[in-house]
Fold:
Amino acid sequence: MTYHNPPVTPRKSATFDDYTLSEIRRAAQTGIYDIRGAGAKRRVPHFDDLLFLGASISRYPLEGYRERCSTSVTLGTRFAKKPIELKIPITIAGMSFGALSAHAKDALGRGASLAGTSTTTGDGGMTPEERGQSKTLVYQYLPSRYGMNPDDLRKADAIEVVVGQGAKPGGGGMLLGQKISDRVAEMRNLPKGIDQRSACRHPDWTGPDDLEIKIHELREITDWEKPIYVKVGATRPYYDTALAVKAGADVVVLDGMQGGTAATQEVFIENVGLPTLAAIRPAVQALQDLGMHRKVQLIVSGGIRNGADVAKALALGADAVAIGVAALVAIGDNDPALEAEYAKLGTTAGAYDDWHEGRDPAGITTQDVALMQRLDPVKAGRRLANYLKVMTLELQTVARACGHNDIHNLEPEDLCALTIEAAAMARVPLAGTNWIPGVTQGGL
Amino acid sequence: MQRPNIRTVDLSKTTLRELNQELHTLNSSTDGAWEILNARGFHAVAVGVDAPVSIDVRGSVGYYCAGMNKQAAVTVHGSAGPGIAENMMSGSVRITGDASQYAGATGRGGLLVIEGNASSRCGVSMKGIDIVVRGNIGHMSAFMAQSGNLVVLGDAGDALGDSIYEARLFVRGSVKSLGADCIEKEMREEHHTALAALLERAGITDVKTSEFKRYGSARKLYNFNIDNADAY
Structure:
């Protein structure tokens, strides 16, 4: 007798999901690991897992649109003769000319300047357009030293020594040959069309003791005028922050794993580093232990999307935040209006991340002249300024609701967490309790 | 006896910050000679200078002496710590003694002459600088070297020219090993001519270009190819 198995709904594996299966097939077909742009796409504990408590009987709120709530921030007060004054605590993260088109860099500069904040160069040097359009420009000092020269160093308003970034802590960069135009090749002093590797370590210093001497050299070259930032990918934030302070940093930039990159291996982006939420408190703890909180400023980046995220980062102890991916979206990246063109590239709006291939229909992550022309830097800059303005209003709304007349008065006591994981990482109580896992014993 | 027209700065009496700030007031129309006494291993001596002056540093220096130099002719009468003439743009730097790690790192132009030996990673990531070393150089020298020339009258250590791009390497002595994608190349007439010019600029007259071998990129790793994965 034949046994007939009754029909059931086909069941796909949670472990071997559709994406995983497609990646196995892709690897088997090509023999090459996947490279892409942007940051971690996996779900990790994030600012969404925190809520503000708001004012109540024990605290009174401030009136929206009436009572002042300051948003300005000063960066580089420790050693620099000329600290940076920003109107808002939201800066534009480092992104290179090369990875981005000249029009995109132009737009970022315009938007940041309109909003009263800073933008940052990237791995490829400073372009005249970017310097011209950016009221306040931070110049990155990277392992590759592409485009590095003392004249641009002196033109900068601050210098950011990049040790690592959240998308790939411990990794270098790669700009694939198809994006190496004549101009990019000239700025980087390499032949056109070849893959350009950006080293993962600096060529002339190793370790915190050397970093201190390197920072000293940069200060001597620039006559101690410029704030010097040290940017690290979030891995060991307590120790990295402490060592950056010891090495003489004015500002520490801490980038979580959701922070974007122009191009890195998928395995790196998704599996190395800490979520932004988990990195802030250890870094702040290091600053507090050294008596340097608010004296050495902390900029947090990686997955900042709206004013609430900014408020949460500040409440956990940051002085400012930086945005990269969100700024690109504001100027037109992954716009559904371009869906037909994304479809031709085998993707969809919202998922396009092959930024390294240089075929971006939005004209942002490309060096193709025809594509680049699609981006109007003036209009795109305006969109970025609008977005920054909205984030700032949202930030002020939350701060006033918590009773603060300065966004830097936000504090961990303003927060609770929706999950045990987020409570442990952010060191704030689980909602409805006074339990901070790893800190308190719990109870109501 | 102090010669006229020489500005002498004694680092036992003047701070390094004062020295560098004064040097930064000079510009392209400024010439003259400077003498820096009691260098005593200070880091960042005469960094960021942008003027056609001569600077004689008496004593050994620490890290990054003459960093990002433009136009100036700096001579260290002693030895140099790590990163001598890092990211030099133009001008010249001469070390009468030995140089530590990363000599001439990421240099973009100018001439670096080391009369003694240079340690590891000499010329790392060089981007147009010319480096002439009378003695030996250490391991991983000219790592990721992009352009410029590295001339070594002595021997080279392990992994010379690893991941090299378009820089040219001339070594008179032995090479312990070559790094990934670095190969020995033919010394054609144009290379003898270029090498002779480099030696002349460095003031070296007691060796012949025929005594050198040339090394450079095999250009096999310029674009990622999975079949080359074992080379990385």
Summary: The mean pLDDT of chain B is 95. The interface with chain A takes residues 16-17, 20-21, 24, 43-44, 47-48, 50, 62-64, 67-68, 70, 82-83, 86-87, 89, 101-102, 105-106, 108, 121, 124-125, 127-128, 143-144, 146-147, 163, 165-166, 222-224, 226 of chain B (CB under 8 Å). The longest strand of chain B covers residues 127-133.
